[in-house]
Design goal:
Strands 1, 2, 3, 4, 5, 6, 7, 8, 9 and 10 form a ten-stranded mixed sheet that branches. A hairpin with a 5-residue loop joins strand 6 and strand 7. Helix 5 packs across helix 9 and helix 8 runs antiparallel to helix 9. With 346 residues, the chain is of the alpha/beta class. It is globular, with a radius of gyration of 19 Å. The chain has twelve helices and ten strands. The protein folds into two domains: 209 residues, Spore Coat Polysaccharide Biosynthesis Protein SpsA, Chain A, CATH 3.90.550; 99 residues, no CATH class.
Length: 346
């Protein structure tokens, strides 16, 4: 089903849907900006609950003031392929991705659209976002003290790599995303980061200090859905955030950087590895819940297989998690961010 207005929208909210009808309904209900500014594009990716997702979209479309472009993929494209398909179906000047389990911060979307209109010369915008921990604490992912232009080049791309992974609120000019379309990296789960890098190597971007989205972080429930598409099979096993899944996802960063290095003669692999090691806490903490022995074995694999043992920060995180556990370390990091007002930059 598609509702198409006459004029093309400024912003396309692009939602890759896979098996989360209730969460999708919650996300759609959180959209609260002027309808003439945007369209909603949803691509359902051949999941078991397709009929439930379709019913949610039909119910929303029947009463919504928004233009809704809903499509059902005939085969499972996987995360990367579905992002590319969403871009192809979108009509906006910018596309903004949202995971189907995320939502918008009330009142923030209109402010963010106004920000984009004021900065049309920037093809990529690094957003700020909120998330909620299982104990109810809110964590604010704020990367700089204030809105800041970012100069193009390798240093900026390396800094943006990790900070652009979370899909919610990822915003890029549609024409630029179409220009760099490729299926070469399908299965990495990092297509959005590849697009950011292609754009930001050559053009200035900007950090927007408006918390526009709320990431729900369903991965904490230990039930990922990746691994269903042909491109993802062999890399990821659906059903749990296993040690192998985490290692393979980390290695995928370097698959992307090596691809870009071959294309452009850059040194992104070395730069990104160093940056990820400095900020490797989330890579480590995701496996701490499986017990100390399993965690230390996993940390050793990150150190050797992913090359994360290149900074002292990696070892500080590793032993803090080993000694104090994930919950205590999470609290300490949230406290530090609140004191500083933003994520530390080492």
């Amino acid at each position: 089903m598609t509702q198409v207005n006459g004029a093309d929208p400024f912003l396309s909210i692009c939602i890759p849907s896979y098996n989360r009808p209730a969460e999708l309904a919650w996300l759609l209900g959180s959209i609260d900006s002027q309808p003439m500014d945007l369209e909603i594009v949803i691509c359902e990716d051949q999941a078991p609950k397709r009929m439930d997702v379709r019913a949610v979209v039909e119910e929303f479309s029947a009463t919504s003031v928004y233009c809704v472009n809903y499509h059902e993929n005939p085969t499972n494209l996987g995360f990367d392929g579905n992002l590319r398909h969403l871009i192809e179906r979108a009509r906006g000047d910018y596309v903004l991705f949202m995971g189907d389990d995320d939502r918008f911060v009330p009142g923030a979307l209109a402010r963010f659209i106004a920000f984009l209109e004021q900065h049309r010369d920037k093809p990529y915008v690094l957003r700020t976002y909120l998330t909620e921990h299982p104990d109810g604490r809110t964590e604010y992912y704020r990367y700089l003290p204030h809105t800041t232009p970012l100069a193009h080049g390798e240093a900026t791309v390396a800094w943006l790599f990790k900070r652009s992974v979370t899909i919610c609120g990822f915003t890029i000019a549609r024409a630029e995303a179409l220009k760099y379309a490729t299926a070469d990296l399908d299965g990495t789960l990092l297509y959005q980061v590849y697009l950011m890098a292609q754009v930001c190597l050559w053009q200035d971007s900007i950090y927007c200090d408006i918390p526009v989205v709320h990431a729900v972080q369903t991965f904490r429930k230990d039930k990922p859905m990746f691994g269903s598409s042909e491109a993802e099979k062999g890399r990821y096993t659906a059903g749990s955030v296993s040690e192998d899944n985490s290692i393979n996802f980390t290695k995928a960063y370097f698959e992307v950087t090596e691809y870009l290095d071959r294309l452009h003669g850059t040194t992104l692999t070395e730069r990104v590895r160093f940056d990820l090691s400095k900020y490797s806490y989330p890579f480590l903490s995701i496996q701490r819940k499986r017990g100390i022995r399993s965690f230390l074995s996993y940390a050793k694999r990150l150190e050797t297989e992913a090359g994360f043992g290149c900074t002292v920060y990696f070892y500080a995180y590793k032993w803090a998690l080993a000694l104090f556990g994930e919950a205590a370390c999470d609290r300490a990091i949230v406290f530090m961010k609140r004191i500083l007002g933003h994520t530390p930059n080492f």
